[in-house]
Amino acid sequence: MSSTGTIGQVGRRHYLTSIARSVISFLFSLIITFIGLTAVTFLISKMTNIDPVLALVGDKATKEVYDLAYKALGLDQPIWVQYGIYLKRLLSADFGVSVLTGQPVLTDLIRVFPATFELATIATVIGVLLGVPAGVIAGACKGRWPDHVIRVVGLFGYSVPVFWLGLVGLFFFYGKLGWVSGTGRLDVFYNGVVTTRTGIILIDSALEGNWEIFANAFGHLILPASILAYYSLAYIARMTRSFMIDQLSQEYIIAARIKGNSYWGAVWRHAFPNIMVPLITVIGLSYASLLEGSVLAETVFAWPGLGLYITRAMFNSDMNAVLGGTIVVGTVFIGVNLISDLLYRVFDPRLRTS
Amino acid sequence: MSEAPASRRQAILGNTYRAVRTILVNPAALAGLLIVVVLVLAAVFAPWLAMGQTPLRPDLANRLAAPSSLHWFGTDELGRDIYARTLFGARVTLTIVALVSVVVVPIGLAVGTVAGYFGGWIDTVLMRITDIFLAFPKLILALAFAAALGPGIENAVIAIALTAWPAYARIARSETMTIARSDFIQATVLQGASTWRILFRHIVPLCLSSVIVRLTLDMAGIILTAAGLGFLGLGAQPPTAEWGAMVSAGRDVILDQWWVATIPGLAIFIVSLGFNLLGDGLRDVFDPKST
Questions:
Q1: How many CB pairs (< 8 A) connect A and B?
Q2: B18: nearest Cα among B291, B288, B290, B259
Q3: pLDDT for residue A350
Q4: Which residues of B touch A333 (CB under 8 A)?
Q5: What is the pLDDT of residue B2?
Q6: With contact defined as beta carbons under 8 Å apart, do A236 and A127 qualify?
Q7: Domains, in order of start, for chain B
């Protein structure tokens, strides 16, 4: 017993150091990628032909005021100093003021983020609940009709433009059938009835026990969420299928079958637990891409989230808001990517026992 | 008939034959190939196929007309023929796809082969940069670029290319690392070939097949991003017939005149589906282990 105890301790220490190493490399990647992202947004802000000084002082300002503002913004400095100033401002969470709303960009972003978060989360939940079983079945029935059906469904998901599917969905389910509500998050006369606590209407209305609003919000949410879920389903099912095929070709499956497991017993009890770890990464990636990729869906459904905010800002030449939004979305995207990568390393049992 | 080819030409012909046969016996890949061929034909012969209709001439007396024998797909909000506009839209789509490929493949190959061949700190630095671009949110970044540079096809192409090249650098690097270790490269080094000659004459051609497979699979994504930018008003500018922008124009009338938005959207869908099917088929040919 004592010898197994020592081995266990050594394994544990090894596990902890490997986790520590993962965390350090995680932070390093985060910093490097963040610097890269800000460098790119900085360059974009330099490329645009919108004069930041004029945006600040207005076109009626005198030459002196203009020059003063020019100096105050640090535009007379060399470009790397300007980048330093820019980075320092970002790190103190100062994205500037939105020309369009007259508020700090950060305040705006905090206000609109819950809408995107709500949509992406519900979509991912639907995508996982349907995509994972679909992928497992496709992998287990490789080459037979369930596999072909799921493959075609997935391929359609890879090929259909989200903004078009949204429009056609609105046409059928709202216009023709009347099963769902139209664009926006709520019907107009429900706006502002529920106090904003989390910004997620489903939660806010449930907290107040206002089920009428809950139902209305759900009616608005379900179509855009299902459409985004389709994309995440296509991706998750494809990846699950290939993980599954990989596992089912291993010898331990044959061993499990010899011991008397049914085929599907071996699939779900023996192969499935082994694909859960790589699946975390896949689900994380898909979630991150929904958080950023719902720009088009939000435009179609007039969903007042990050994507719609950035798009509106873009059409009003509100570069502070565009770049602030890009950085926030980019950081969330990078963060979710890296966290799922980290989780992968933490949960991989091979790192614990080796 | 022996397995080993006797000459270079025989090897090339044999490989081509095997590739074509694999594509032709795979109905999905064949369908994809057909769609792509039809797209190219539609783009090339658009003025002749348009049956006397033009994509740009407005006819306000006939706006939002339903599909008929005169206007096969109906007319849009300015009375322009949607059939002709869809045909001419194929040109815009092909142009964007071609331009993105022309920009992305050389950049990806250059970064990837150099990183893979030289290794060491060059590899580390180049791959770090690649990873940074790979971690970017693609559509948002493309949006920000298009917003800063102003809307238009060229800027849409630049925006898409900037977010698309890292995948090719990764592929080219991993291919190069395998190739660079093989004996024939050592033999070429001993014969006194310069590094650049080895890279361009021996390594790049061998990376091309993987890159082309990846490019075909990426085409659908490129088309969808381009259409998305067009839908938001950041792609081709009016009055150019671009599918994404056409869907956007049909947005307000979707409940009453469904054809205005539906038909260009179907075109985008079918063309992306074609490239996806073809790409899957090509992958089966060139990289049988990954299926």
A1: 139
A2: B288
A3: 63
A4: 135-137
A5: 60
A6: yes
A7: 8-286 (1.10.3720.10)
User: What gap in Å lies between CA B278 and CA B217, rounded to an integer?
Assistant: 8
Whether residue A40 and residue B244 make contact (CB cut-off 8 A), yes or no, is no
Q: Do B131 and A311 touch (CB under 8 A)?
A: no
* Mean pLDDT along residues A201-223: 83
- Contact status, residue A212 vs residue A181, Cβ threshold 8 Å: no
pTM of the model: 0.84
Subunit contact B140:A334, Cβ cutoff 8 A: no
Q: Do A295 and B143 touch (CB under 8 A)?
A: yes
Q: Residue A354's pLDDT band (boundaries 50, 70, 90)?
A: very low
Report ipTM for this prediction: 0.83
- 3-class SS at A99? coil
pLDDT at B291: 42
Contact call for residues A142 and A245 (beta carbons, < 8 A): yes
Higher pLDDT among residues A296 and B56, named by residue: A296
Residue whose token pair is 């096809």: B153
Token pair belonging to A196: 């904003």
Lookup: tokens for B252: 């307000």
Q: What is the pLDDT of residue A86?
A: 83
Rounded Cα distance, B270 and B32, in Å: 9
pLDDT at B252 > cutoff 70: yes
- Whether B216 and B271 have beta carbons less than 8 Å apart is answered as no
Q: Which of residues 104-163 of B touch A (CB under 8 A)?
A: 128-129, 131-133, 135-141, 143-145, 147-150
Euclidean distance between CA atoms A162 and A231, whole angstroms: 8
Query: What percentage of residues in chain A have a pLDDT greater than 70?
Result: 93
- Which of B128, B140, B272 comes nearest A329 by C-beta? B140
> Residue B136: is its pLDDT beyond 70?
yes
Which pLDDT score, from 0 to 100, does residue A237 have?
A: 93
Domain A105-352: which CATH number of 1.10.8.60, 1.10.3720.10, 3.30.420.340, 3.40.50.2000: 1.10.3720.10
